[in-house]
Design goal:
With 143 residues, this protein is of the alpha+beta class. It has a single domain, classed as Alpha-Beta Complex (Ribosomal Protein L22, Chain A). A hairpin with a 5-residue loop joins strand 3 and strand 4. Helix 2 runs antiparallel to helix 3. The termini are far apart.
């Protein structure tokens, strides 16, 4: 059997990846992943603050009885701190009181699968749900 030589066609040079596009300096975001609370319960709280000013949202979260409010409050404070840091890095003026919640969403995280003993030696599956919190704050213009 004759040995055949494989010909390798030269590929065109790979294009350099364009730098990741970022929003304006007046916009910042924060994530909290793997929060040990079901997305349904978290969405009840996040729906109340979507589109509100940051100060108003923090006041609402501070006096909420829901456990999710504490987790969302942490993420919101982180987003505000990220906005301040980005403004400081670009030497831009930022009015923290003019920030509002532009985008707030809860996504489902990985489920922790457990089993609970049941009657007659059986076991029933339990799904402990987790959530991902994503908040984007931006500076409101025209005020």
């Amino acid at each position: 059997m004759p040995a055949t030589k494989k010909t390798t066609a030269k590929r065109p040079a790979a294009k350099k990846a364009a730098p990741a596009r970022r929003g304006p300096a007046t916009e910042a975001r924060a994530f909290q992943r793997g929060t040990r609370q079901s997305p349904y319960k978290m969405r009840l709280v996040i729906d109340q603050i979507r589109g509100k000013d940051v100060n108003e949202a923090l006041a609402l979260l501070t006096f909420s009885k829901k456990h999710a409010a504490k987790q969302i409050s942490k993420t919101l404070k982180s987003a505000v701190a990220n906005a301040e840091q980005a403004a400081r890095a670009t030497n831009a003026a930022l009015d923290v009181d003019a920030l509002y919640i532009k985008h707030a969403i809860i996504n489902e995280g990985p489920k922790l699968k457990r089993f609970m003993p049941a009657a007659q030696g059986r076991a029933t599956p339990i799904q402990k749900r987790t959530s991902h919190v994503e908040i984007v704050v931006a500076e409101r213009t025209g005020r």
